[in-house]
Known about the structure:
Blueprint: H1 14-21, H2 24-44, H3 47-55, H4 61-85, H5 87-107, H6 109-114, H7 116-140, H8 146-172, H9 179-200, H10 204-212
Amino acid sequence: MVPGGLGGGQKVSVATELKALGRSEVLWAMGVTAVSQTGWFLLYSYLTPLLRDLTGLGAVAAGMLFVFGLGGFVGNALGGRLADRSLRGTIAGMLAVLAVMLLLIGARAPASVADHRRGAAHRCGLGALVPPLQAWALGAAGGGSPLVLAANASAFNLGSAAGSWAGSWLLDGGTTVNVLGYVGAAIVLLSRIGGVVALRKRPADAEEAAGGATA
């Protein structure tokens, strides 16, 4: 559905892209992205055994996954609008919300996960985190770096893989699945600390430019 006759756009310099990728704030943004996703996927990768073993909802696991996906869809739209208002506040706030959600799952797995509305809220929080993290990386790169956007997308995938691996390692060691919520929350809080420290040094004009990039 992309219209024909579009121009080729500006040529991309490899040296310029690599320079943007090496900026300290870009690296901070990608680090927060990877670590936060590690904390979430530490538990999310094992949602089905959590439903089966602790809630007795194995038969409706597919339905819960659908609810989680729907929450992520809503969260993505919400996160973009919030980031346009305050990039710093959205990232710090959503990371805090995500950590609390993981703690709730760990502490009250049968109650919190069995409730479809809470399940949607959990995924909505994560979905709302994606646009501001992408906007942060893009703004830190100067507002137009395809390489930085691609690298930050890879950071999301790296965090997903790391979280899944770490979760399997803990479960193989005898950890119960709900404990993954506690560990994941600690990792997400660590990423929040890093994000708050890095964003505190961010100039106000860069904040506004990055927020507008999500529109």
